[in-house]
Amino acid sequence: MSRVRLALLMWMAAALMALGLAAPASAGTPKRAAISALCHAASGPDRTTEAMIERAAWNCTGAGWQADAPVAWLRFEADAWRDASLPRHFVTRAARHERITFYALDAGGTLRGRNFDESDGTPFAAGPVFRLPLPVLTSETEALLVRIDRPHSIPMLTEAVLVHDLDEAGRSLEEMMLLTLVLGMLVLPLLFDISFYLVLRERFVLFHAAMVVSMMGYVLFAGGVISSVVTLPVAVMAVMAPLWWSSGCGAALLFLSTFLEGGALSRGMRRLTFWAGCWTIAVPGFFALQLHATQAFDDAGYFLAIMPSAVVVSAALIHAILRGSRSAKFVGVAWFPLILTSMERLIRGLGVYAGPSSLDLMMFVATGIEVIVISLAIADRFLAIRIERDAALTEARMLEQISTRDSLTGLMNRRAIEARFDALLAQGFDTFALVDLDRFKAINDLHGHQVGDAALVACANAIRMAGDRDSVAVRLGGEEFVVLLRGERTLERAEALRQAIPRRIAQDVPGLDLPVTASMGVIVLAQATRHAMQFSEFYARADALMYEAKASGRNRLAYERLTVFSQPPAPRRTRESKAA
Prior knowledge:
Keywords: Membrane, Nucleotidyltransferase, Signal, Transferase, Transmembrane, Transmembrane helix. The protein has about 575 residues and is α+β, with helices and mostly antiparallel strands. Helix content is about 50%, strand content about 15%.
């Protein structure tokens, strides 16, 4: 665990340094402002450009943006660039579309057009944007009309701008540096997830890893960082950003449903959270594909379908916190900024208001916060699970010991020896000695069960004295004990144990009128490793021998030697005690 803590501290230090380095640099030469559309409109596919020349056809209020009509229109007025360099590029957010056509409206009503398909756009490293060259604008140009066929995104319309130089559009160097650093910060949690999963095979670690990978994909595509490495088609850029985001939101719900402590979520809430995650991956993920067949509703469908995830996450976290979940508090702190920025992005995506693309940076900063806090939460949960598992293992070992040990003497019980008997035979324990205390009932009757229990403990201590690698002591129940022996002179060692019992009882239990002796039935196997008899068969033979010893006067040992697969039993012999 010390290595995990050290790695976590190192990662936190790197993350804080990254956030510090990502602070905006001092202002340099200000960029010239990009030119935004003054008016917009929506129409069917048959609306002509001539019909759009009149100002009455346009909405110039800054509201009512539509991406569900077959055609969207943008109007840029020449007054916006009259005293500056003429625009040369059209730049907007990467989103699916079929075609973009530019019409330069010159004095006298002359229209000059230029047409581009979706594949003609060129993404560049200034955000999730692409550019198209404009028709030549002159001092005679009064307006630029832009027709977009099958637009799939309202931000594609609200964030469209005209620029003279490409450095006037998109993100600043400081903003791109921040995105790169956030992307680098996401690598370490992924490494932690791999390390944690190797130690604890918990599903929530896999779900968090999926969430981190999705966040990395989102930063790459929605932040436009990928365009600094490779130039991808506009359609790929347009699809990947929302697809990564819906996958990340879905993985976050799956993570939450499995991460919190047991009992933090009710069964119904846990199921709701899990299936909401599946919904968020599947349904908004489908709308993220931006198929032309779904153009009329996929933009609104994406945001409306992903909205329940924020509601379910909030409800689940509140539910868990009210139930006293420690992990839910960590997750709540980590996800609160993300939920807020996601809702802002959702509202902006639905066209409720138009805002600059720089607002997306809030989401990336919130991602950096999430990375730090959720990693702390996983480390905290990791430690808690380790403690819980260690306690469970300790309890399991205690229960196992209780179930396999005699509670009075501490010796193995019958259940334990029966389970291990075949293995012990294979290990060469070739002598089975059954011990029974003589006239033990009289001790209980005369002195009480407390003294009788003390005599049993003393007997156990006597046969335990021989406890080494070559002997195993067991209490079967009542005053019956078994000793398994291997090695040399096992019969003599068994007799020595039997004679030690009266001496140990007399030493540990004073006040008894007569010595407490023991009778023993012993079976010596010729080839223990090849014997196929069961414990019950050995017990039955040894029990018969032990009763022969008792019938011969007690305080003695009766034994027989068995040969594997021999039909008649060997002659039984009784050995009297030499000393009581």
